[in-house]
Amino acid sequence: MDGSPYTVTAPQSRCRFGVARADITPPADIYQRMWGAARHDQAEGIHRPLTATALYLAPLAPSGGDPLVLVAIDHCLLYRREAEAVTAQAVAAANAANPSPSIQPDALQLVFSHTHAAGLMAWDRSHLPGGERIRPYLEEMATKIGQAIAAAAQAAEPVTIVYGTGRCALAAHRDLWDEQSGQFVCGFNPNGPADDTVLVARATADDGRLLATLVNYACHPTTLAWDNRLISPDFPGAMRATVEAALGAPCVFLQGASGDLGPREGFVGDLEVADRNGRILGHAAVAALESLPPAGKRFEYTGPVISGATIGTWAYRPLDAASLASAGVWQLRQWELTLPCREDLPTIEDVRTQREQLLAREEEARRAGDQASAADARALIERTNRMLTRLSVLDGRREFAYRVRLLKAGNAFWLFAPGEPYQDLQVQLRRRFPGVAIVVMGLSGAWGPSYLPPRDLYGRGIYQESIALLAPGSLERLIEAAGDAIETMLAQP
What we know:
By secondary structure, the chain is α+β, with helices and mostly antiparallel strands. It folds into two domains: about 5-295 and about 325-340 and about 400-490, no CATH class; about 350-390. Helices cover about 30% and strands about 25% of the residues. It has helices at about 80-95, 135-155, 235-245, 270-290, 320-325, 350-365, 370-390, 425-430, 465, 475-490, and strands at about 5-10, 10-25, 50-60, 70-75, 110, 155-165, 170-175, 175-180, 185, 195-205, 210-215, 250-255, 260-265, 295-305, 310-320, 330-340, 400-410, 410-415, 420, 435-440, 450. An eight-stranded mixed beta sheet has the order 5-4-3-2-6-10-11-12, with helices on both faces. Strands 16-17-18-20 form a four-stranded mixed beta sheet, with helices on one face. Helix 1 (about 80-95) links the parallel strand 4 (about 70-75) and strand 5 (about 110). The longest helix is centred in the N-terminal third of the chain and has 22 residues, at about 135-155. The protein is globular.
């Protein structure tokens, strides 16, 4: 939006754009256990299909820069080795299906909806009930993603992407102090801050066809928890269905910086709650999308009309040549931030020892018929399993190579951030650059560093902080580095 009191210009991007979707629903009896408190390992059915949606984005001119291929996936996350395998196979499948334009591995960016009801797709779960299906499923998924990428690239055409914002109260703060037990719990905190921004975008072809809509919102898809036994995209599924029914084009959900945000009503087994949460966000997104101006136009004051009152009239007018040229700017940057690990990280040997002790405790509880203690031990074993996976990405180092990707497409920025940053990332960047559309995506690429909480939350016993790999101050460094990069790119002609 410009600063004139007589014109309102929404951020817009002019680029080449293609979209294609694949159904990646796993077998109904695949390994699903994501929650430590779950009493089951295998799923027992399907709530809604899982999808992978490929977006092919490229500058209007072939010589204008490298393309970006974004694939939005209905899964919680992939660990590094699984993400690398899926990426390599998807690129190979894309190039086999459509050799031109050839897709380079570095062009592909996976992002995850973060649904906790789709199962933990990790190779090290292959020995568990339903786990034998994980490897073949991921291979099949990668092939489908590659085919979707090829279809999106082949369908790419000039578009205008128009951005805007709405509000939605679905997301709530989820760090709650429990006075009775004297600890922080991961649950609805009615007094905590929660960013309610819904950033939306609409991609329209030059002939007026609506090709896709985008919904960027920060909220953990944790409606469905340990009591749920069905594969589900959680609330993003019903959100997409709501938007697509209203507007008639594919809707892509892009998870924001949601480390400390989750649905007000969550951690249940009731599928209707997940669908209701999705409709809450979906209707908010539709309202925001319907409020967007036509592609390639701005809202302008056209002068007074004498009536019972003197009316100030406004109308949509085409963008001028300079504004259209600005919308076609294409800059893609990626870099690595070297971030220190926290000093109190356990060693792999320590965690393995703790895991063996917990396994013994679980077995002892089972023999004694104490199912509650056995379930608690099993949940703690799950925590050690995940800690071992997190530590393995460090390869013995005490620092982490945090990969950031930033796209400037016209008057908008798309920021890809690995792991789960707290909402501060998007709140502070948008506050620093008012009027600039900034699409902020956590859960980009492999899960890697896990959570990125603010510096002042370390040492307070909050779950997200307790499993974070990175040292205090890492989130602040990411915010500063991303903000400085945006400032530099805004200053460039």
